[in-house]
Specification:
Oligomer: single chain
CATH superfamily: Nucleic acid-binding proteins
Helix content: under 10%
Number of helices: 1
CATH topology: OB fold (Dihydrolipoamide Acetyltransferase, E2P)
Structural class: mainly beta
Largest sheet: 6 strands, antiparallel
Length: about 120
Amino acid sequence: MQVKGKLYAINETQVVSEKFKKREFIVETEDQYPQLISIQLTQDRVDLINLFEVGDAVTVSINLRGRAWENPQGETKYFNTVEAWRIEGESAKNAQVQGAKKAPVKEEINDEPLPF
């Protein structure tokens, strides 16, 4: 599934435990009635959002996750998470940033004579 829209907010990374970290961001859809969708990045994907800024147009590939939890009173509660696994920019600015990250590094040539 995909969510398309503009980045509305980007939160800081939260370290939940020694083995788990997450980062949430909000996308505002461009529907007739815009929606603010909270999307989560986890583990090694938390830095994917660093290439973007609030206001950028994005397409986010997502998975829907659901789980049950039983409270101390014995009632079962259900929770959903929208988890991102890829973020693509739709603006030329983001394409340039992504391209710049992949550009090869030039080596400096030293024309000084060797000391031996």
